[in-house]
Amino acid sequence: MKIAIGSDHGGFLLKAEIMKHLRDKDIEFFDFGCYTAESVDYPDIGQAVGEAVAKGEYDRGIVCCGTGIGISISANKIPGIRAALCGDCFSAKASREHNDANVLALGERVIGAGLAKMIVDIWLDTEFQGGRHGRRVEKIAKIEEKYGRR
Ligand code: RB5
After folding, report:
1. Which residue CA neighbors atom 5 of ligand 1 most closely?
2. Which of 12, 47, 53, 63 could lock onto 71 through a cystine, CB 3.0 to 4.6 A?
3. pTM above the 0.90 mark?
4. Does pLDDT of 148 surpass 90?
């Protein structure tokens, strides 16, 4: 599995922890920035990670900002992206099983690195259940078709 990862300055330290965790687990990833703790704009990073996943260059994305909110909203503007902001393990599992989330968003100022790594593990290991959930995810794509600007 190939992961696209990114953060703004607010999620920079949490991203570093997660990248170390991915390295320890031998999971391939590419860092879309930011590369220093200097202030940057989260939409730029959310867009870059979202585009890379939507194009199929990466299997999944992980994005971090202070809250995880701004960067998840930004990634979700890319057609085909289903970014889930998760602060607990139950939501991480459900976001995969029910929503086929292809981007995970985390908030450095909200959760600690220990919980974040646990969420990442569950999220990476959980498969989409399909069935009735597939129908609902297809309906999300229909909304994108109606309002999107491909
Ligand atoms: C940056 O200060 C902060 O606004 C950002 O990291 C994020 O929390 C936005 O949603």
Report:
1. 66
2. 63
3. yes
4. no
